[in-house]
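Allow me, if you will, to draw on your knowledge of protein folds for a short while. A protein sequence and the structure tokens that stand for its backbone fold form the material at issue. I would ask you to consider whether the tokens describe a fold that such a sequence might reasonably adopt. Thank you for your consideration; the sequence and its tokens are set out here:
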Amino acid sequence: MRSRRSWLRVPDAGAPLTLVCLPHAGAGASSFARWPALLGTDVRVVRVQLPGREEVADEPPVRRVAEAVAGLGPEVARLALTGPVALYGHSMGALVAYELARALEAVGLPPVHLAVSGRRAPHLPRRFPLLHLLPDAELLAGLDAMARTPDGPPPPVRTPAGRRYALRVARADLELGETYAHRERPGLAVPVSAFVGEHDPAVDRAETLAWGRVTAGRFRARRLPGGHLLDDAARAALVAGLREDWAVLTDAAEVADGRPA
């Protein structure tokens, strides 16, 4: 039986919009540590901490999308009862964010926006062999290749403990993504934004544009500088794109309410 510790890191201060951020494979809530400063006081950044990483490394990691959504759904739904919630996920986090958006919509508490990056659309087939089944050395080499950019830093030097931690979490997260089976359903009513790095070796532009098929609402795709993992320039460009899209949502809500846009 899983611990009842919260999977969300919620700041004390509120804001007009809550953004729930889901990390990529192998990462934890600390990967969004810089986001509150980037987004300012009008956005409450809620960071997802799935079991098995960082301060909850003693817990078994989640290995299925459905399990992640079941754990996150009730907590995010409670946030949605108090004000508008947007979702953002990168890579593996994008897939969980998508299914979480579907779960929230099904209970009448849809997010106001879904943003994804570094992940092919959920209905597209996998182009690469299963990574989570690779031997340790090959898996680590594959993770390092995914993170590399033409002008980026060399792969990290891991201690034996760091190597064990990286393998345990990344293998479970990759299994979560690679065992996912998409079910064809009507499009979300939620607006969707999709982002992809210019040099991302894992996702191309066509796979990013295909996210438009998952929604009956507004869709926009953008390129980011860099590769698969977000550096400072990519993070700043993504946040700027989010703000543009949220401004459109605000205008649309004001028109619907009969207020001047």
Observations:
- The two ends are 50 Å apart (CA to CA).
- Helices lie at 35-39, 65-80, 92-106, 136-147, 160-178, 205-209, 232-256.
- Residues 232-256 form the longest helix (25 residues).
- The chain has a mean pLDDT of 89.
